[in-house]
Each structure stands twice: as C-alpha cells, then as structure tokens.
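Hi everyone, sorry if this is the wrong subforum. Our group has a chain we'd like a structural model of before ordering constructs, and none of us has done structure prediction before. Sequence below.
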Amino acid sequence: MSHNPEQPASLSRRQMLSRIGLGIGALGMASSTMGKMALGKSVRATQNKPNIIFIMSDDQGYYDMSCYGNPNIATPNWDKMATEGVKFTSFYATMVCSPTRASLLTGCNHERVGFSWIIKFWETWALNVQEQTIPRMLKQAGYVTGCVGKWHLGHGGEAVSGCKGGMPKNYGFDYYKGVPLGHYGHIEGKRPHWEQTESMSPDEVTATSIDANTTEGMKYLADLPMHDTENAVDFMTRHKDVPFFLFLAHTAPHVYHWVPDKFKGTSNWGDYGDILQGLDWTTGEIMKALKDLGIEDNTLLIYTSDNGSDREESNAPLVGGKWGISEGSYRVPFLARWPGRIPAGKACDEIVSVMDMLPTFASIAGATAYLPTKKIDGKDVAEVLFDPSISSPRDELPYYKNKRLEAVRKGDFKCRFSRGPDPQDPSDKTPPAGDPLELYNVKTDPSESMDLIGDPQYAGTISELVEVRDKWARQLGDSLSKQSGSERRRAMGCKS
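Answer:
Right subforum, don't worry. Here is the predicted structure as tokens:
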C-alpha cells in the first residue's frame, strides 16, 4: 500500500486499539496540564510514560556487529539487545551525518528542512529553530530531555563558544554535553567541547577545547565514547524518577579510528574492530545502568548508526558506503529493546527510516498533541516495533545526495537514475540525467548485483518508481530532473 508523505502522522483506530491492548503505559495518554509540568517534578505515580534512549554511532556499517553476521568481533551487548528485542534489516538513515541528525530530530526528509549536506567546521548555519523536534515535543509532554555526544546541527564556525540560537538547548534539550563536531571536526587540531546544564539559558554554554596535538588530548578523544557514556549514565541517574529522553550520539567509529587503551588488541579485526568492541561495551554500561536504576522495564532502548561505514567491508553484504546512495550507505543496523513490550529475538525486514522516529516516539510517549504543525515525512512505526510481523506503513524511500534524487525504493524494488553523460566525453553513452539507469530487487538482492533494468517484465515497476521519484522531486527538488521543490524549508544562519 502506498502512503503519501504529505499526510501528517496520526494514530489510526487500529493503532489506538493496539496501544490500549498494551496498557495505559504504552499509550502514554497525557493531559495538556501534565504535558506542561515543571522540569524535575515526578510524574511516575500518575503517568507511566516510558523513557526513551536513542543511541547513534558515527559511521558504523551494517556488518559492524556480530549479530549482523561479523565473526571477527565480539559484541555481546548488541547481541543481547537483538536476542531480547528486535533486529531490523531494512532500516535507513541517510548518506552522511548532519542530514541524518536533522531527519531524526524533525521527522522530515533532510532535504525538506534544508540539510542537503554536512555542516563543515568553518560554516555558520544550523537547523532552523522553528522546526518542531523530538526533544521539544517530548518536553511539552512532560519529559526531561538530554543530549550527550556529537551534535553537528550548528556550531558557529570557528568560534569555540558555539552558535547562538543553534545550540542543543535551543531545540528542546534540557541538557547537553559533548563535542559538537565529533572528534574529527577541528580548528587547527582543537575540538570544541560544550556543556549546557539544566539551569542554563538556551544560549549559555561552558565552552572549552580539546587539543588533539597533545598526547593527553588524543587519549581523551580516543576514550570519548566512554566519557560520553559516563555523562549519559549521570543524566539517567539524576532523572530516573521522571520520564526522560536521552540522545546519546557517539563520535566513533568515525575516522581517525583512535582506539581506547582499554580495548587495544581485543578483536580479530584490527584497530577498527577494537573500537567497535569498545562501543559495544558502552552499550552494556547503559543497559547495566537501566537495571541498577530499576527502570529497565520502562525504557525503550534503540541503537543505530547515522550512515554506513566508509569501509566497504563494514557494510557487507551491502555494497558501497558512506557518501553514496548504495544500500551500504543508507541502510544501517537498528536494534530496539523494551523488556515486556517489544518481543524478544525477532528480526524484521520491513522498511523503516530515521525520519519515522519522531511520530513513533509521539505515539509511544502520548505526545501526539505536540506533533509538528508543519508537514513531516515520518510514519508512526510503533506497531512494527511491537509486532515485527506486520507491514510497515512506510513502503517507499527517496535516496538523496546533495540535492540530487539519485534513487528511490518502493516495496522490494529500487531504481537508480542517471547523472547523465560526461560532457567532456563525446563517446559516453550514459542515458540523460534523470533517466532510469538501474533496477534492483533489494529485498532478495541487497548487494545490488543483478540489474533488472533491461527485463521487459519490469517495465511497469520502473514506471511506478519514476512516479515515486517525480512526487518527491516536486516536493523537495531534484537537480537531476531539474525540479526545485515547492516544499523545501530553509535551515538558518547563526553567529558566535
């Protein structure tokens, strides 16, 4: 069944009955009065809203977990999430980090909110604060909200002191601590480091820098996932008596591939494998804290990556990697665990996207009254989390790369479109830009090895995929088919 991305996310009668069948805690029904409760006031006695922890690594590929088939690394904590929850095999992020983070927080395709590419360290633009976001929505519904780790949605260029109007607290987070650009983004080797406490105003920040030119600084950056996890556990501990949303955004395994001393030589996959085993350990620390704090059974825990790895071997059996539109770029691991609510040991191959998280969290947290008033592209996939055997409300996906709509998926099929012939090469017979170029059944052929474009039995499929492409292009633009997009919204500038 095709679903129009113009339709706002909402609960169907079937979804509502499903939530009721799971109990009032899963429905999370909240009055507007409760949704505006002051920070820190306990609502556990009257509102059994689940905590939500969303962990996102940086450039971790589809094959970078033992539960996804890699025999070279031991990842017992991710494996535990998979055996106690659901492992998704068709979860999609985007091709690179900033667009994925924008899509996650807004429930929109990244092109809709003006995030065609990454924010470079010298640039002074940010996610538009007029966009509704997951933390602001959940805060309105009575949650305490925290972000730890990589931000990368606005940082004020070369100023260590931050991006006025574009720092995490401007988007609904009560607390932030981390390296806004990740451990790779730097100014002459120095990485900005921010902290925004619950008592600070949105533009206040304690700003320092970490100098990777020193042995001490490099060691700190190598250990950053452990430091971030420690800060995350501290946030969880301080707010264990109220519903909270925590976005833990790791900076690894992104290059430079610095290995924490604690994990050197622990894998059979070199430095990169050692880093992955360190990341797995941090997930175990989060799970341990949930149990020790007595909130494990009331917490939805999700682990995923912002895009595929730049190491193609890390994305097997998918092809390609970060920066592109192959499955190895967009498709990433995704684990979801919620004891007693999400079934254990299930795998799901339904299409789910990072932009589906906002409406899904609204459904689970009883925050649908605070869904964005502007158009979003996300679908409520809560039913799929609770019953992985049912069909996802998402059956199509655009693959953008820096304003070029280079492919679309609908159902099992993915069509790639031509970038056009090389104008400097008269012998280049590549079809004109925007024409169908390749066709794959990515359900049965996720490695995109069997091109079906020339098979006449798929002519109707290709026509349908072209229609899907044209729909997204009309809305969000496409430089290949020379469409500007009538529904694109702007990011914003910010100053230090």
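For your construct planning: Residues 397-493 form a domain with the Arylsulfatase, C-terminal domain fold (CATH 3.30.1120). The radius of gyration is 22 Å.
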